[in-house]
Amino acid sequence: MTNPLPDDGQAVARALAELDTLAERPLAEHVEVFERIHAALGEALAAGSAGSA
């Protein structure tokens, strides 16, 4: 089975790995991290959708 993401899912893996950094960050930074992750996942989804069309 092939991965539908153009970068073999590395963008998704990096975005999800950033979740692991939350424990060491101040709570005030969490929203910014979540926004970055949300944006990265949205971009990966859009890229995957464009590649399958």
What is the secondary structure topology, with strand pairs?
Blueprint: H1 10-19, H2 30-52
Helix pairs in contact: 1-2
Structural features, described:
The chain is mostly helical and 53 residues long. It has helices spanning 10-19, 30-52. The two termini are 18 Å apart.
* Sheet with most strands: none
Q: Note the gap between the termini.
A: 18 Å
Q: What sequence of helices (H) and strands (E) makes up the elements?
A: HH
Alpha-carbon Rg, integer? 13 Å
Shape: elongated
Number of DSSP-assigned strands: 0
Sheet-strand content, in percent, reads under 5%
Unreliable residue stretches:
none
Number of contiguous helices: 2
Q: Name the average pLDDT.
A: 83
Helical content band = 55-70%
Describe the structure in brief.
This protein has helices spanning 10-19, 30-52. The chain has 53 residues and is mainly alpha-helical. The mean pLDDT is 83.
Keywords:
single chain; mainly alpha; 62% helix
